[in-house]
Specification:
Largest sheet: 10 strands, mixed
Shape: globular
Distance between the termini: 49 Å
Number of helices: 12
Helix content: 25-40%
Structural class: alpha/beta
CATH superfamily of one domain: D-Amino Acid Oxidase, subunit A, domain 2
CATH topology of one domain: D-Amino Acid Oxidase, Chain A, domain 2
């Protein structure tokens, strides 16, 4: 029997040849990055590229085996919150800056691929989100109106002409959408479900983020031999922040029956990029207490996903389906409490020289009290699979009367901050502590920009106040 029933298609493809290096003694370094997922790896990449500092990356398990290896493999340039809600809370300029910075991550990702000569398949394309209700149509148009006012790019919005014959929209929106036959919208969304009356378009992509992370790590180890070290199965138990330096108490997490061993890491700064940070205690010896606030910085949700294969006869895509109940206005709390479902499709080599399209469906979630309580080896919950099955029968073409055979079923922990926005930057109570955390369900693009921003901060670049700033 497989000792780990939670194998994603991304980890299935991950054939590591690199040996695991576990810390075996005290050491001194410039900067410690905690967390070997996409966030920590991107942070290390940009620090090595833009500074001359010595970087040590520590990971409690193995690189990319946490949330990075248990996601949907989808790249999106959007947030978990509607743009209109970000404008209400933070103001128009900060909301626009957040969108533009996240879009800029596509440029950064292309540069990484070119510089490191990466071979991990990456697909980018125009993806679509589908909506059933007037409230979401209006909110999408309000967002475009705000973007237009700010002088930034608007997102294409397509509305079914059949629906517009029965529903009147405010005159101010007339130039912010295109009227099309509903059949066109259903075609974009690849569904026959006639409840969908609107589709919005934005750049999306697909990538195996575990494979990508491992390839970047290999590049960093080969290119920056004198300045980069990586320790896996190594957890930080205590971060003691002083005025001029940081001391980390670390523990090895051995799986060979040997007892755990503890060591000290001495550094100038530490950057936390991990979902499992409830295990880390923070002692601020040079300022106000941080630990209590830190442990309330995120909540955890478990996301459930499943995938099946089809013939390689359609291009890659990423689609979102929003099924919230009709309301007169979009309330942010209700908006986030009601799930949406997403579908991705990309070429996938299940066995050597055996290419298929892999169709991934995700959306069901379950809260956990603490992210450290998440069991990555727990079996897939049957009821979550039934939700996915029901969605496929109702919304995916050619599957109304079929029983699907899923090649993979998996789950992963997602880290949500109270604001549902990533936290990037230095801790106001001690500037030696930095954060690049909070995947909020859409982690790859914001992880990239977060790592880039932190590296630029280390070389003295100044940034305007941002949605992503740690709160005082």
């Amino acid at each position: 029997m497989n000792p780990n029933p939670n194998i994603s298609p991304w980890l299935y493809q991950l054939k590591r040849t690199r040996p695991v290096d576990i810390i075996s003694g005290d050491l001194t370094t410039d900067i410690v990055v905690v967390g070997g997922g996409i966030s920590g790896i991107m942070t290390a990449y940009f620090l090595l590229k833009h500074t001359n500092r010595e970087i040590t990356l520590v990971e409690g398990s193995k690189v990319a085996h946490g949330a990075t290896g248990h996601n949907a493999g989808q790249i999106v340039s959007e947030f978990e919150r509607p743009f209109t809600d970000l404008v209400r809370e933070y103001g128009l300029q900060k909301a626009v800056d957040a969108e533009e910075n996240t879009l800029y991550s596509w440029v950064l990702l292309d540069e990484i691929y070119a510089e490191a000569k990466l071979q991990t398949p990456l697909s980018s394309f125009m993806g679509y989100n589908g909506y059933k209700h007037r409230a979401h149509v209006v909110d999408a148009l309000k967002a475009n109106l705000l973007r237009q006012y700010a002088g930034t790019v608007t997102n294409p919005v397509y509305i079914a002409k059949e629906w517009l014959l029965r529903n009147k929209l405010p005159e101010e929106f007339k130039d912010l959408f295109q009227t099309v036959p509903q059949s066109d919208i259903l075609s974009l969304l690849e569904t026959e479900n006639t409840e969908y009356i609107c589709a919005t378009a934005l750049k999306k992509g697909c990538v195996n983020s575990a494979l990508l992370s491992e390839e970047i790590v290999g590049y960093l180890l080969a290119t920056f031999k004198a300045r980069f070290r990586l320790f896996e199965h190594t957890s930080v138990a205590l971060a003691s922040l002083n005025k001029d330096n940081v001391n980390l108490a670390v523990m090895t997490n051995r799986k060979d029956g040997n007892p755990e061993e503890g060591y000290q890491m001495h550094c100038n700064q530490v950057i936390l990029c991990t979902n499992g940070f409830e295990r880390i205690r923070i002692k601020n010896n040079s300022g106000d207490e941080i630990d209590a606030k830190f442990h309330h910085m995120v909540n955890g949700d478990i996301g459930y996903m499943a995938a099946y294969i089809e013939d390689l006869n359609h291009p890659p895509t990423a689609l979102g389906y929003y099924d919230q109940d009709e309301t007169d206005s979009v309330n942010i709390d209700a908006y986030n409490d009601i799930p949406y479902v997403y579908k991705t499709r990309r070429p996938y080599e299940l066995e050597k020289n055996e290419m298929h399209n892999l169709i991934c469906i995700g959306g069901p979630e379950q809260q956990v009290a603490e992210t450290q309580d998440y069991d990555r080896y727990a079996p897939f919950i049957k009821e979550k699979g039934e939700i996915i099955d029901d969605f496929v029968r109702k919304n995916v073409l050619n599957h109304k009367d079929k029983t699907l055979e899923y090649k993979f079923k998996w789950h992963g922990i997602m880290c949500y901050t109270p604001s549902n926005m990533r936290v990037v930057g230095s801790e106001p109570k001690n500037p030696l502590l930095y954060y690049n955390l909070g995947c909020n369900g859409v982690g790859i693009m914001t992880s990239i920009f977060g790592g880039y921003k932190i590296a630029k901060m280390f070389v003295g670049e100044k940034f305007a106040p941002s949605i992503f700033d740690p709160k005082k």
